[in-house]
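Before anything else, study the sequence and fold tokens given here and see whether the fold suits the sequence. Record follows:
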Amino acid sequence: MSFPGLSKSTPKTCAQGVMAMAGLISAKKPRKQRAKETAPRNREEDKFRNILIKFLRKKYCKVVRVEPSFRGEFGLGDLWVFCEATAWGGWVETKSLTGGLSDDQKEVRRLCVLCGIKYLVVRTLEEAERIYKINIS
């Protein structure tokens, strides 16, 4: 006899199965299978972010990529960057040439400016290069 959510192989699971049959505990329901994406995401912004990370690291900057699903806050920038050579640190948000900031991102940018924290929106590698050069001098 098998029970949903219980493996058949150990004495512990057998005991849990007997207890579930007796109504002393409820059997665990099996987890739903995760949905698979039909096609990989091929966003221009994602490709540019990887290029930007490599560029900044070649300039000896410490770059930390922050994932929205991990941090739970959707307004923060994509990258937190520290650069000793230019004494610069702050959030960097990567966007495609036509992409705009969400309302959450606009609010975080406003708060960063208010508190003196740098928050940059970078759309091209040339912008990143210009920002890097400005901060050196």
Summary: The mean pLDDT is 79. The first strand starts at residue 61 and ends at 65. The first helix runs from residue 11 to 21.
